[in-house]
Every structure is written in C-alpha cells, then in structure tokens.
Amino acid sequence: MFDANIIFLIQYVTLKKLTPMLLTQSSCPPSCSPAPAARFALWLAQTAQRLPLPPIAWRIARFLTVGVVGLAVDSGVFWGLCSAGLSVETARVLSLALATFVTWGLNRLFTFAPSGRRPAEELARYVAVALFTQGFNFALFLALVRFDAGAHLQICLVVSAVATAALSFTGQNLIAFRSSQGR
C-alpha cells in the first residue's frame, strides 16, 4: 500500500501531465487497492486545479514532494545502516548519497524542465550543488547531535533536512537544471 500511495502522490504533484491517470483505475497497479489513496489524490488534484498559483509555486510543491520521498529514503537507509552496526557518521553519508541520486532522478522527471544537457552533465551539476547543500545538512545534523547527546537521531535528521530545503531548491533551480540555452 505504501508504494501505491507514493505513486498517487507523485501523480498529484505532476497534475498537469498526469491528471487523466488520476481519473482512471489504470493508474494503480493491479496488486494495489486505490480506494483511499486515489480518493485523496483526486481531491488534491481537483483542489489544485482551483488554486491560481504561479508555475514556480507548483515547481516548489513538486520539489518538496520529491524531497519528502528523498527524506524517506534517507531516513530508512540511515536507520537500516545504524541498525546493522555502522557508525552514525558513516550511515548518514551513505544514506545521503543514495537519497541524492533518488532525488536527482525524480526532480529530473517531475520538477524541473529539461535543461538540454546530457544526463551525465546534469547529474554532475546536481551532485555539485548537492555536495554543498548536503554538506550543510550533514554539518547541521552533527551539530544537533553533538549539542544534545540525548537527542533522537531521526529528529535531528529531519530538522537538518528541512533547514536545507530552500538552499537546495535555489541551487538546483539556478545551477543543475538551468537551461543550457540560457547561459
């Protein structure tokens, strides 16, 4: 059911491209039950159509939704690696790396217009921005953990990720996904 909800959430966020899919059962794989997720996604899609938001607001909404998916990947991998005995620092570096790759792919598909660059060049630009923003994220995470040794690690992870979102959107929008025609 979690996978079906992610599918519907992504479809909602990419409303203008995928609205017809939200209105049919074909958007849900045969193995899932679309009832609650489909009704919620349809309600969100209909509500969004009535909101007179500028394109940048929709881009930010899609970016934040991709960010939530990336945060879920980051948090899940981090928890799994810590549970497997890796140090907090090593687990966090690995979870950030995987989350960065996942968010690049999703942002490339759903959030930003095609940049006109080859995927490898675009990924390199994305990684450069991500190294800076994730470096900030990682430093803030470690500062929060060190500041309060009894702090819940997942709370520190979420706080650092949220604090990094605006910095990341700005960098990705202006550097990684900037049109190659607008140089």
Structure commentary:
With 183 residues, the chain is mainly α. It has two domains: 2-50; 55-182, no CATH class. 78% of the residues lie in helices and 0% in strands. It has helices at 2-13, 15-22, 35-50, 55-83, 88-111, 119-147, 153-176. Helix 4 packs antiparallel against helix 5 and helix 5 crosses helix 6 (119-147). The chain is globular and about 45 Å long. The N and C termini lie far apart (44 Å). The relative contact order is 0.10. Residues 1-32 have low confidence and may be disordered.
Task: Describe the structure concisely.
The protein is mostly helical and about 180 residues long. The protein has 7 helices and no strands. It is globular and about 45 Å long.
Question: What's the arrangement of secondary structure elements?
Answer:
Layout: H1 2-13, H2 15-22, H3 35-50, H4 55-83, H5 88-111, H6 119-147, H7 153-176
Helix pairs in contact: 1-2, 1-3, 1-4, 4-5, 4-7, 5-6, 6-7
